[in-house]
Automatic annotation (TrEMBL), chain A:
Organism for this UniProt entry: SAR86 cluster bacterium
UniProt KW Metal-binding keyword: yes
Gene Ontology process terms (BP): electron transport coupled proton transport; oxidative phosphorylation; respiratory electron transport chain
InterPro entries (UniProt xref): Cyt_c_oxase-like_su1_dom (IPR023616), Cyt_c_oxase-like_su1_sf (IPR036927), Cyt_C_Oxase_1 (IPR000883), Cyt_c_Oxase_su1_BS (IPR023615), Cyt_c_oxase_su1_dom (IPR033944), Cyt_c_oxidase_su1_bac (IPR014241)
Residue ranges annotated for the Cytochrome oxidase subunit I profile domain, each copy included: 23-527
Protein name from the UniProt record: Cytochrome c oxidase subunit 1
Any GO molecular function: oxidoreductase activity
Gene name for this UniProt entry: ctaD
Keyword Electron transport among UniProt keywords: yes
Organism taxonomic ancestry: Bacteria, Pseudomonadati, Pseudomonadota, Gammaproteobacteria, SAR86 cluster
Chief localization: membrane
The EC number(s) this enzyme carries: 7.1.1.9
UniProt superkingdom: Bacteria
SUPFAM superfamilies noted in UniProt: Cytochrome c oxidase subunit I-like
Known role: Cytochrome c oxidase is the component of the respiratory chain that catalyzes the reduction of oxygen to water. Subunits 1-3 form the functional core of the enzyme complex. CO I is the catalytic subunit of the enzyme. Electrons originating in cytochrome c are transferred via the copper A center of subunit 2 and heme A of subunit 1 to the bimetallic center formed by heme A3 and copper B.
Catalysed reactions, as listed in the record: 4 Fe(II)-[cytochrome c] + O2 + 8 H(+)(in) = 4 Fe(III)-[cytochrome c] + 2 H2O + 4 H(+)(out)
Amino acid sequence: MSAVIENHHEDHHHGPAKGITRWLYTTNHKDIGTLYLWFSFAMFLIGGAMAMVIRAELFQPGMQIVEPEFYNQMITLHGLIMIFGGVMPAFVGLANWLVPMMIGAPDMALPRMNNLSFWILPFAFFILLSSLFMEGGAPNFGWTFYAPLSTTYAPPSVTFFIFSVHIMGASSIMGAINVVVTIMNMRAPGVGLMKMPLFVWSWLITAYLLIAVMPVLAGAVTMMLMDIHFGTSFFNAAGGGDPVLFQHIFWFFGHPEVYIMILPAFGIVSHIIETFSRKQLFGYSSMVWAMLSIAILSFVVWAHHMFTVGLPLAAEIFFMWATMLIAVPTGVKVFNWVATMFRGSITFETPMLFALAFVVLFTIGGLSGLMLAIVPADFQYHDTYFVVAHFHYVLVPGAIFSIMAAVYYWIPKWTGNMYDERLGKLHFWLSFTGVNVTFFPQHFIGLAGMPRRYPDYALQFADWNMVSSVGAFLFGFSQLLFLFIVLKTVMGGKKATAQVWEGAKGLEWSVASPAPYHTFSTPPKID
Amino acid sequence: MNKGSKKTLTKLIIAVPLMFAFGFALVPLYDVFCEVTGLNGKVFQSEYSESLIIDDGRSISLQFISTNNENMPWTFQPSKEVMKIETGKYHTATFFVKNTTNKKMVAQAVPSVAPSNAAAHLKKLECFCFEQQELLPGEEATLPVKLLVSNELPSNIKNIILSYTIFDITDYNDESLAHHETGME
């Protein structure tokens, strides 16, 4: 492929530049992947600290620690930071590290844009976080920023929020374009579409979703900006606009966004289960088709977030069935993972533990999602802690466990060192316990009627809230152990072999550990 | 960058502004959708139509609800809360409105119809909600709405609720939009 041959401007033996400029000017996919991963780790800890404030306030009924206004700012920023700063950049970082190595490409197709798309992110989050110190405080309208809460009634800092969302969107779009161009044009000869590793497939689909919906999000915040500053009335009923329109536009972005945060996880988990089961993945092509159908369906289910706004019956029924339909391809995937393990020679290293927990706990989250899809039931569950439990089950032991699994699985390739298996397992069990103790009781208090987004609650919810807070502290503090394990692995440890894992297959395991600064400058031979 | 990459890149770069525009296109699409289905109780002005008028319409009741949007100090209420009307005939209802403040204010009423599948059959010939109301301090007015309920109204609907919410839009009408307060008070 000519792309590979043209790409000889950098000498194969030439290593990274020294000092800070290495990171500022880098166009190397591995460096940029590392930057993304560290950035998302930092955001994960900041967003996590906010979650600790939330759970500390909810530890007991009554107002204990923070003012209600500040509590609202915490839930808003926690959501925004975890989604746009934690999960999404982590997946982009993994894509940067892994996609070129998995398809036998020397780098991403657009290395300079790659640098730009990372380096605008810290500015976006600096702007967002700085709003905490502004007059009127940070955004306080929830991560879904429904108008008119986010327009007519918003604090003045909402304008900063809008610009930071614009920057995050630009970053995601550039990252996604880069991934698509790389995958479509830079595969080594012999890597056909249906031979691509599933992580690559999952990212190809995710990138298309990003390109389709991030501009719609940009449109939504632009309309807010115009309503706030230029006197338009997109969402203002007095001027002929409609607040419900905001929800339609937002969720047209928002639902595909949910799958943007889970599809790469599907890819990761497929690789890990395959490796540690020492078997070939069961049903490769059905996995690809399942991801494609999930992605397509994600565009026609958005109104299930809005069952209570007064949709006509026909629409409620349509969105209910369309939503339930998603359980079919998702079920196919879960079946395939289980079938891959069936009669495999399974070992339970840390990545496998996280992947297994993913399968079980993500399925619990999927099941509560099905319950929420049932229109008459949703009227009861809507805006209660049941919803909070549902989306945290798919995001924390779903998306985040998959990211942790990926880190444990590929870190020997990145650093050349094995992580400490005993500490890794300890981290897993603490996280696993913490997540379940935190979020499982939220199903109960949600079904009992506790509404989301309030700093205080009725006395009958006190016991389970305390349990949930204890779990949250356990989960939160065990992430410091994760940080320690990662740092320890970066500093040193048992040297990793090229293949690292006995059952590992794929091009990234054919290069040395740590992966050289430049890999596949000449395309690999594929049989 | 090779040729294939350039082609893919061009396509994707075109897709981005198109999707951005699509986000904005959702605004008129939403209105069209609401107009076609009559959802959201959006009722648009209709022309006088002889063909809708019939003699043997059935009798239904039309209820009126008036709501003041927050911070709107005017008195605003229907002259009669319920009217017995016949389908296929034009009727006029009135609302009483009074500016209770000591400054000139401009208001806009926004209508909504329940049940929503009745909205398409409600034909408004004239309505105060099609224009803005400007009242001097202490001024009163009686605002008319002239409407007809088409005989094609589903027969299970025996009661239609017409609701108006009145908004203070004085600031929006002001030439000085610049000092329009949007922040928290």
